[in-house]
Design a protein that fits this description.
heterodimer, A: alpha/beta, 6-stranded mixed beta sheet, 6 strands, disordered C terminus, B: mainly alpha, 4-stranded antiparallel beta sheet, 3-stranded antiparallel beta sheet, 23 helices, elongated, disordered N terminus, Small_GTP-bd (chain A)
Chain lengths: 217, 604
Amino acid sequence: MEYILVGDASVGKSSLLVRLTDRRFLANPDPTLGVEFGSKLIRIEDENKTIKLQCWDTAGTETFRSITRSYYRGAAGALLVFDVTSRPSFTNARVWLDDIRAHADPHLTCVLIANKVDLCGNEDANPGNVIGSSRRRQVSTEEAELWAKEEGLLFLEASAKTGYNVDEAFDQAARDILKKIQKGVFDDRGSRVVKSSRPTDPNQMTLDEPARKGACC
Amino acid sequence: MSSCDESPVLTAHVTTTTTQYDDSQCNMYNSETVLKDVFHSDPHSSSTHTKGNTLADVPGRLSLPGPEARVGRAGTLCNCKRLDPACTNRSSAVSLTTADGTIVPCPFSSLPISAHSPDDPSRPFDPLRIRFRSPYLMAQSNDIDVVYEGTFPPLIDIDDNESVASESSFGTDSTISSSWDALPFPELNVNDLMLDFDGSVLGGTLSALVERLTHAEYPGNTCRHGFPRRFHDDFYDIYDPLRTISRIDPSVQPRHPSEISLLHNLIIGNGLFEGPVINTLKSIIQDYKFTTREEFDLLTDIENFLRHDALDAYPSAKRLLDSILLIRNGESSVSTRRIAYDAIQPPPHLEPLEVARQLILMESRVLREVHPKDLLAHGLRDYRGSSWRSPDTSALSILLRRLDEASRWVCSTILARDSPQDRALVINHFITIAEACRSLNSLTMTAAIFSGLTSLPVARLYQSWAELRCPTSIAMFLTIQKFLAVAENPSEYRTMVKCLVPPCLPDIRVYLAAIRQIHQTMRDNLDADGNVINFRKRHELASVIAEIQNLQWKPYNLVPVEPIRAFLQREVHSAYPMGRLFDWSLQREPDLSLPTLPTSLVPL
């Protein structure tokens, strides 16, 4: 299964991915240049399935938009990330969503992720605890949830720093995609988007290729 | 691949060698495949290969001339007897009628099949009953008996006296072969090569591909003089092919026919149109960037290969050794390329055009270092393992980082100004710089600066943009916008690049996106085991790489102005991260309700 991580620059996309694959927090990452890649096997217990996730971590900056767009096409799931402490990153999520809708598979599963909730985790209960962090929450859970519902996205709050909900985010997306496969929205055999681990008939492949080429170029 | 029924292979040979089929199948083939002709003899015994020899005793072998088909000077097949003198209608479109009556286009019409009439060349040839498989035919039915009943394309007979060997540049005293004819033709296994209808290669195993590519006259290679580039371009990743070459032991009489052909191709050259291929190997090796230890080991292997006694007779092998020595000493051909500056020294001030020039110089220097290896690996850097967090020092990532920095630098510089009026001035300045970059054909720099201008922290500065009143700047902005929008569409972009007068800096992002697209739509291998390389994919990739390389090597004739360059480098490098820029932007103009860009700047 191929995922893409999209969202504004420095909302924590790379950190989320490193948290997922390496179980550690990337404190001060360099900005992603173009795209980077991470993969992980996840297990969906109740379905009794192991899924290989391939995640394309895309650059959030405008400079690389034309590169990152070319990664939308093959993705089965998109994790649309914004930073709860940055209002613009949330407003811009709309732009990202339009971009995804324009370039990616129409059936793609999109999860809205409110990242960096650790920065304001205890803010409400005990504002004094947030020492050294000048950041405050700028996007409320309710607001994000409402927007996600409007747009038909899954929604989760997560933190790459603490690892809160990170696995769940990827897991939920995987479940949703699996459901779609079972419903036949994604064609398991023919689809570019979801590759079955069973080696497909090589003949099929050679037959498909010229046609595909024609379609994309 | 024991099960031939599933092999998606347009058989270059319908062969019945035991490696491919078991006995029962073999018998089936013998009965079904009525092949009275064979193009060449058993490759293992070169002596049987004589022209017009009856080879009906080698049952069931039909060979399509692959690399082994030799093309004479006139572009006709030689070494073949005319089948039927009366049959002169060469252009007769060959189509094949399948057993169920469907007519399929014949792959042989462009991939000329040749056949000997067993005994008497003048005897009318029997209809060929060919049983073959092709990925295309597989779609209709699994096994198709194709009965060929049309006329064969007449093949021009070349007399033994006009043997190709006499035309070739290599000597006949070779220790490896005395003449062309002594060389057995290489045999390709059924699964070695997959050919398309037009004779171009779809895929194949590594050794088969290497062999094919070292052979200049394989069908479909119309550019006779383009061999060295072809090898290089088609096999953009020449590491594996080189390794294959280096593993051949020249002293051992090669048992596998493809080995001997390879060796022959490499060392002696095929003599017709090219000089010894080893010379071209030299240029390939010079172009390759040997960096890793593994690659240097490979170099050693090649050296050992070249030092072998059997190759003593070839001066070209020695020349290649010399150039390898140069590479070892770190004198790659890249460093020897020098740029001559003859432009007049400009005055050092931060005039937009000069800034643009220096930016371009910085960029082009990096771009010229970008190696295909990096381009192909882009986006495949895995987070896990040691590679992550270790700084990526490849030229490509430096280039990308610089672009990112440049656009952030644009943001930082604009946001550093206090008043909207001042910011508008800076915006104006950057528009002029971007326009200058555009006029200097630097697509990447233009895009980087422009994306800095349109990135959210700057684009949302409504008040500042409203201060931008100069109509020329606004017009410029819109022109650049239109110009860059073209680059979004790969085909339009290519037409545009073709129209540019070099030197120019191509938009590297377009190529990265194109490479990604190829990766996404095509598989590496055509079989489940990963032995058959999808050559078409490599070819596609190679053509993208070739496009970049074409543009990479045209240097700008610009003078580096050291103070400006140093200033820019420092400034660009210290640009703020995007997150900071957002915050800053909010401080400058906190109103979130205003639109991002004034309507005058939004394209219709």
